[in-house]
Design a protein that fits this description.
2 copies of one chain form a homodimer. Chain A is α/β, with parallel strands linked by helices. Chain A folds into 2 domains: about 5-150, translation initiation factor eif-2b, domain 1 (Four Helix Bundle (Hemerythrin (Met), subunit A)); about 155-359, 3-Layer(aba) Sandwich (Rossmann fold). The first copy, chain A, contains 12 helices and 17 strands. In chain A, strands 6-5-4-7-10-16-17 form a 7-stranded mixed β-sheet. Chain A has a 4-stranded mixed β-sheet with strand order 11-8-9-15, covered by helices on one side. In chain A, strands 1-2-3 form a 3-stranded antiparallel β-sheet, with helices on one face. In chain A, helix 4 (about 85-100) runs antiparallel to helix 5 (about 110-120) and helix 6 crosses helix 7 (about 185-195). The radius of gyration of chain A is 20 Å and the shape is globular. The two termini of chain A are about 30 Å apart. At the A-B interface, helix 8, strand 6, helix 9, helix 10 and strand 13 of A face helix 8, strand 6, helix 9, helix 10 and strand 13 of B. Strand 14 (about 320) of chain A pairs parallel with strand 6 of chain B.
């Protein structure tokens, strides 16, 4: 029960960010890529919280799965210690709380932890039974995300013009999800249909996830990719090289406003100025109908060192101020459609997104 | 005669990119900043050509001055070798040609080399006299640029709203000119009038001139500066933090289209989407009335290693393709005004730019 079904695995990318194993959670260390392919075993909920904070694992859906697995690790830990059931449950709640405080913007984490919380809240009489149910739920979250990405890929690929130049930002790929990817899932499916598409990856400063992660996972899967600096999108579009933009999302509000990696908003504006359609690919777990507009989304500000240094070398003068929001919000008016596992939502999103949840 | 007047020096920034000395050209090595402040002495025209290609010296006006000084170095070299006058002139022409082939986009280089060529073409009867005239012309080009930057600063400062947030791209500062700077000259003058302005510097991938150079020279001169990634401008503007954009230029065509560092076009689009005025600051030597529109400007494409590595470490997968245009063209329609030493040209630029040359 601790592994995904072989059928699902065969459908996916070669790349897998995380996997629940009998020893813990096997995590591909995303801070070491592309120069080193290193797997770590995360054994406790506390280690998982740190792995999320330090971005060993990142990407909204993957963080959700990691959070769910973190709760399983908490249960395993307490069981090994032989904690009485009351303490076992108390520790679970403490670890859910701890995991929920790792990163504020991506809603998938809270969505997954809520799902795990619901399992904890069900009546159970033994630690063993609860651990079994939590394990099953976490694997289901992972498998559902995987299937959702496959479905997004199929829906999204229908939108891509023949031979299109496609640009994406950050990494919304197998590395950012349970496998296959959201934006890169669309690109994978499009490439399977039409290998003449041309993929451009924004390097995505400050952490360079586009350069470090997206190019790596596409090369692993044999999909040709051109790396560009974030500030080249205007030049590319003006030269007619881009016909389609697709990005992931960390949180989408009821009106369609979308928080995603810093620079997504810039890319959306550049796309609109060139009449290039801008799509967001995200599972329903990324959509937060409890928030009305993007202004309500908490935006994480990360450490200045992400901007001031690269590979531990200072790249600016001492005495400089910094501003390092990790995400920005793209207003719904820039978005041509939101590609989900249940189909493509079109503007006005207020209605189309709500409808997806009814179906 | 080999140095700038003390009066001009006192007006300027502490930072000086290049200076003609009896030994050669004293060059601040801009590839070593900000971690090392290292001066080199360039002694031959060939060394100067290499210094321009490898960007030890960069910035459109500074490249023009460096080119002019390179011609002086050619004359000094030939004089030291005791070449007969005919060979002396022949070598000058060969070196002018060599210097002209270093970088294609910034027109100031060709403008300065044309001015030096005109001196070579004047009737002269001795190497000594020609060397003297070339030296005088090169120093005049440097001093004129310095004065032009001061004038641009004064004109441009009148445009900056009280307490404005100002964003700039790349480095159009003292380091990029004969001193004081074009865009940073406007910022220096604005700051002298109103120290409550807030300056934001785009880091400017791939070569990070904003991070490495702009923050350094502003900190040297005591002007507070906040460093941001190139892809944060949308977020900053949406938050109401930016009221004014000013950038330099590498070449401006008769209709006002402006080639400048890659990412300038992105910034212009982002500014227009937020109704923030976007200004270009450049001396007349940057304006190329021989070209009708920006489509005619040759855009330099530089080595892929600028994108694939940072501090010699690979930041992407092996087997990736690259696209590395060093400049982009911002159409005139995005530009609120072009700040020159003769005043501010407003749209339609076809007329206003032509008028500047008549005055």
């Amino acid at each position: 029960m601790d592994t995904l079904s072989p059928a699902l695995k065969s459908l996916s990318s070669k790349v897998q960010a995380l996997e629940l194993t009998p020893d813990g959670v096997r995590l591909l260390d995303q801070t070491a890529l592309p120069n080193e392919v290193r797997y770590l075993t995360i054994r406790t909920a506390g280690e998982m919280a740190d792995a999320i904070i330090t971005m060993l694992v990142r990407g909204a859906p993957a963080i959700g799965i990691a959070g769910a697995y973190g709760v399983v690790l908490s249960a395993r830990e307490s069981q090994q210690k032989g904690l009485p059931f009351a303490e076992f449950k108390q520790q679970l709640l403490a670890d859910v709380d701890r995991l929920s405080k790792t990163r504020p913007t991506a809603v998938n984490l809270f969505w997954a932890l809520n799902a795990m919380q619901a399992v904890i809240d069900e009546p159970t009489d033994s630690s063993a039974k609860l651990l079994e149910r939590l394990t099953a739920k976490s694997l289901q979250i992972h498998q559902d995300d995987w299937k959702a990405c496959q479905a997004m890929g199929q829906h999204g690929a229908t939108l891509v013009p023949k031979g299109a130049g496609i640009i994406t930002h950050c990494n919304a790929g197998a590395l950012a999800t349970g496998g296959y990817g959201t934006a890169l899932g669309v690109i994978r499916s499009a490439f399977a249909n039409d290998p003449t598409i041309k993929v451009y990856a924004d390097e995505t400063r400050p952490r360079l996830q586009g350069a470090r992660l997206t190019t790596w996972e596409l090369v692993e899967d044999g999909i040709p990719v051109t790396l560009v600096s974030d500030n080249m999108s205007g030049s590319l579009m003006r030269d007619g090289k881009i016909q389609f933009v697709v990005v992931g999302a960390d949180r989408i509000t009821a009106n369609g406003d979308t928080a995603n990696k810093i620079g997504t908003y810039n890319l959306a504006i550049i796309a609109q100025a060139h009449q290039v359609p801008f799509y967001v690919a995200a599972p329903l777990s990324t959509i937060d109908l409890s928030l009305t507009t993007g202004q309500e989304i908490p935006i994480e500000e990360r450490d200045a060192s992400e901007i001031s240094t690269i590979n531990d070398e200072l790249i600016c003068a001492k005495g400089v101020d910094f501003y390092n929001p990790s995400f920005d919000v793209t207003p719904a008016s820039y978005i041509a459609g939101i590609i989900t596992e249940k189909g493509i939502a079109r503007p006005p999103f207020q209605e189309s997104l709500a409808k997806l949840f009814e179906a």
